[in-house]
Hints:
It comes from Rhizobium mongolense. Belongs to the aldehyde dehydrogenase family. This is Aldehyde dehydrogenase (NAD+). Its EC number is 1.2.1.3. This protein is an alpha/beta fold. The chain folds into two domains: about 5-245 and about 450-475, Aldehyde Dehydrogenase, Chain A, domain 1; about 250-435, Aldehyde Dehydrogenase, Chain A, domain 2 (3-Layer(aba) Sandwich), CATH 3.40.309. The protein is about 40% helix and about 25% strand. It has 15 helices and 21 strands. The chain has helices at about 40-55, 60-75, 80-90, 95-115, 150-165, 175-190, 205-215, 225-240, 260-275, 290-305, 325-340, 375, 395-400, 415-425, 465; strands at about 5, 5-10, 10-15, 15-20, 25-35, 120-125, 130-135, 140-145, 165-170, 195-200, 220-225, 240-245, 250-255, 285-290, 345, 365-370, 385-390, 410, 430-435, 455, 470-475. The strands form five sheets. A seven-stranded mixed β-sheet has the order 15-16-17-14-13-18-19, sandwiched between helices. It starts with a strand and ends with a strand. Nicotinamide-adenine-dinucleotide binds near residues 171, 209, 224 and 407. Nicotinamide-adenine-dinucleotide (NAD) binds near residues 174, 208, 231 and 248.
Amino acid sequence: MTIYQNLIAGEWTGAEAVENINPSDTKEVVGLYASGSAADTGNAIAAAKAAFPAWSRSGIWERHVILKKAGDEIMARKDELGALLAREEGKTLPEAIGETIRASQIFEFFAGEALRLAGEVVPSVRPNIGVEITREPLGVIGIITPWNFPIAIPAWKIAPALCYGNTIVFKPAELVPGCSWAIVDILNRAGLPKGVLNLVMGKGSIVGQTMLDSPDLAGITFTGSVGTGKRVAVSSIEHNRKIQLEMGGKNPMVVLDDADLSVAVEAAANSAFFSTGQRCTASSRLIVTEGIHDRFVAAMTEKLKTLNVDHALKTGTHIGPVVDERQLKTDTDYIEIGKKEGAKLAFGGELISRDTPGFYLQPTLFTEATNQMRISREEIFGPVASVIRVKDYEEALAVANDTPFGLSSGIATTSLKHATHFKRNAEAGMVMVNLPTAGVDFHVPFGGRKGSSYGSREQGKYAAEFFTTVKTAYTLA
Length: 477
Ligand code: NAD
């Protein structure tokens, strides 16, 4: 089998490899992917450092052309790359193709942003002096990504990093190297100079840790768990390094008595169970007022009966497998914890077998949960959600905000008054009204508050905050 290698200083390299396994069919090896060493990582950092002076001064048209070319190729290959994504991560083929299209759109967007770079010229408060404010690239950026969005998250970090003139050392999650390799190959062929984008696949404890320990990374943009995010933060203080952290969530979805029941059920089912609940923006706390509670639970249970859990590539699959055995164990452990805590298992909770050996788990719904239970406080990151019954809107809002996290927050209501109040008072970076808590646009800011995020927003023009540093120049006329 071919080994998909790391890209360091413009050369494909690496003989050590690990198998990329399909969670829908654990007999299938998606490919063999290089597993980099600390020395490989050091070489990648050195290459990115050496490439920075020239790339940081490259013309905006050159950056535009490369980013546009990459976006076009990803779009042209959306079905093939979507299938690769579905095979390595386990989300359904339509979801995987949708994510691939989004990655293409992100490259298109930042191809445009490269041509819209601008600064400010302002008068000085002193006579005969002019002031210019410009944005400059940061330097070498470390990019560390999780497994759950294997093409979109790398795209929304790599595209702005290049657009604003930075060089990159990119370390994708061990479980999903395939889409990352494909993006890097596309950008490399699109004409990036050697060393501008370096790919080091491999272990977090080796490749990731070497990045954290390096004084040569000017910034690290990280998406992943709270625990790893904290390591990134602590190591970065020592190196005076800029960081952007996107971490976990325990996103609430409030359903009020006046909600349109079918809108609420569609939004809640999508939020909690699509992509196998493995989205940082997934909703795992369904906070429902008492007047609609029983009707909502009955309709949700009926909805869950219609969702097929099966092989990600099979037509008609709504929910693919859990990503791997470890995550499956986390999910089933939390299901046991929920039962012991006294929540009522209203649907699911069982492993299922299908034609191929995979990590198949029924969508699982608890009722009679309280917001103090561990299943309501800790991120599970699987197809497991709980219904929390509340008296009225005021209690719903208080429960929604009573969490250490603050990524996304949703409400189903037909009341303009409550929707408006919720948009203003939800303690989250993103608020959804009559929509799932997951599912966002690529051209506007993405990110959260409290324990979910640290640093400036990702995506849209707000991405410039992280990927550039501001210079103020004074000139005597
Ligand atoms: P993780 O923290 O285990 O891994 C994330 C990345 O960090 C991987 O590439 C991993 O190899 C690397 N890593 C591990 N140890 C490291 C170390 N010592 N030094 C440097 N890097 C290291 O997270 P995961 O399990 O891949 O992803 C799931 C988590 O990601 C969930 O908590 C989820 O909520 C979060 N997530 C958040 C967002 C968001 O935007 N807020 C989006 C997607 C996923």
